[in-house]
Amino acid sequence: MPEGPELHLASLYVNRMCDGVVFAGPVRKSEVSKNPDVPFTCEAYRITATSRGKEVKLTLTPIKSDDSKQTVKAGQADQPVDIVFHFGMSGYFRFTPEDELHKHAHLLFYSKEKPCRVLSFVDTRRFGSWHPNVSWQPNRGPCIMFEYKSFRENVLSHLSDRAFDGPICEVLLNQKYFNGIGNYLRAEILFRLNIPPFVQARTLLEGLESEDVFENERSTTGMKTSDKAKKKGGKPDLLRLCHTVPLEVVNLGGKVYDPETADYSGFETWLQCYSVDGMKSIQDHKGRTIWFKGHPGPMVPKGSRSPKAKKRSKKEEDNDYTDKKKVAQSCSETTIKKRIKQETVTKTPKNYKDPRPKEIGSKRGKTEKAGEVSTPQKEKKSTARRRKSSSAEPLEGSQRKSGRVTRQNSK
DNA sequence: CGTCCACGTCTAC
DNA sequence: TAGACCTGGACGG
């Protein structure tokens, strides 16, 4: 499940597993991979990792021998080499005994130990990639999690960029400005602020200050709120949530990224909107599914009918989302949570254990109306069958077959 | 069995 | 803004 948090957890995994491990020999690539060879071989080297947004960089560092003679044999590396990885839809790292290599391990780093172990880049779908001898992809913005200040500045200083013409849910996937946000994060972030996904991004962001008044807060247990923040109403803004929401996932730790136990139940419990039973979903202009609650917003793709106005419970203020101020302060998180719980339908069996390595949210039929035409169009929208007027028509109690494994707000 | 769907980029009409 | 790139799990018949 690779979005920013998973990439970062992957780097932590590599650093933890490879701490003290000496690797040796060449870096090997699977036969089937179309990614570049990694021209690196060394009799003793170490591996460390860092992450930035949706990229992970491995650094292979040759261990210098103590011998005064630093005779580097021909072909043996003596300088560190960086490899930058993109995880695609299914990439992750594993550190396993040589005889337990994953079927889809595509780049392999062998340890020097006797029962040899291997750090491998596993990527079932092979949408992932790696590039040796490069640094972070230049056209990607600062990391939403670990370069918050420059991330924020990068967005707010480029609001005139046409990239911000579009609806917020689609702009959030633009890695030039939101490096690390992916499909589940955009849904979770917008949900927290009750922001309709198809409101123009610029309109929402224009009102934000370049200085984050929450900057010095302990966001998690955020007991003390700065005076400035209090004046603002005490609510983190959209850009701040682009930072804190992903960090929540990082803090779930192994519950999210644990190739060993393959247990993602903690993560699924964390999700409040994405793939959650009771939420609405439609395809955005690029055919990606956006999950949300409430109004879709004015820039909703044509042909995807606006969802039936749910019988929004009492206090769903009818927001006028042309007014940024209003949007910025729409209903509080706690309010939302409460309301959601109320509307939640079925409950997840608490003993449910997700048999991982599978992709999240792949359970079916949560949103389509039973007999609705709901255009398929997977990643590649099948040619002629564009979403016709249908995909939207989300719930209304009826559908939402409370199938067994569907996600929902349990607890 | 077949269809739908998936946490993401890329490039080419 | 369509496809293309891939594999495989969940469902439906």
Automatic annotation (TrEMBL):
Secretion signal, residue range per the UniProt entry: none
Q: Which CDD domains does this entry report, sorted A to Z?
A: MeNeil1_N
Q: Which residues form the Formamidopyrimidine-DNA glycosylase catalytic domain?
A: 2-128
> Which residues, by range, are in coiled-coil regions?
none
> What is this protein's record name?
Endonuclease 8-like 1
Q: Which Gene3D superfamilies match?
A: 1.10.8.50, MutM-like, N-terminal
The organism named in the record is: Mastacembelus armatus (zig-zag eel)
What domain of life? Eukaryota
Give residue spans, biased composition: Basic and acidic residues.
314-326, 351-382
Tell where it localizes. Answer: Chromosome; Cytoplasm, Cytoskeleton, Microtubule organizing center, Centrosome; Nucleus
